[in-house]
Write a structure and sequence with these properties.
Largest sheet: 4 strands, mixed
Distance between the termini: 63 Å
Number of strands: 4
Number of domains: 1
Helix content: 10-25%
Strand content: 25-35%
Number of helices: 2
Structural class: alpha+beta
Length: 83
């Protein structure tokens, strides 16, 4: 590999999907405040709201993930209007 290509902080990081608990290991430069033990090693932890294991496009399932109540707010404003 070419020297000096990647930043100094390029390291293995565990990403955790908070909607279903799946975790995967990848390389990243992201700053992480937490650590986790994964496959016998300790890695920095980055929490994700959604990943390819829970996203409807990749899973083929229509699953509504609404963490901020945006759908309820929309439905209360515009939900039952018909022309």
């Amino acid at each position: 590999m070419k020297k000096g290509l990647h930043p100094e902080s390029y390291r293995p990081v565990v990403f955790k999907d908070m909607s279903n608990g799946d975790m995967f290991l990848s390389q990243s430069t992201i700053n992480a405040k937490e650590t986790i033990e994964f496959e016998g090693e300790t890695y920095p932890l980055v929490k994700l709201e959604i990943s390819s294991t829970s996203h409807p496009f990749y899973t083929g399932k229509s699953k509504l993930v609404d963490t901020a109540g945006r759908v309820d707010k929309f439905m209360s404003r515009y939900g039952n209007r018909k022309k």
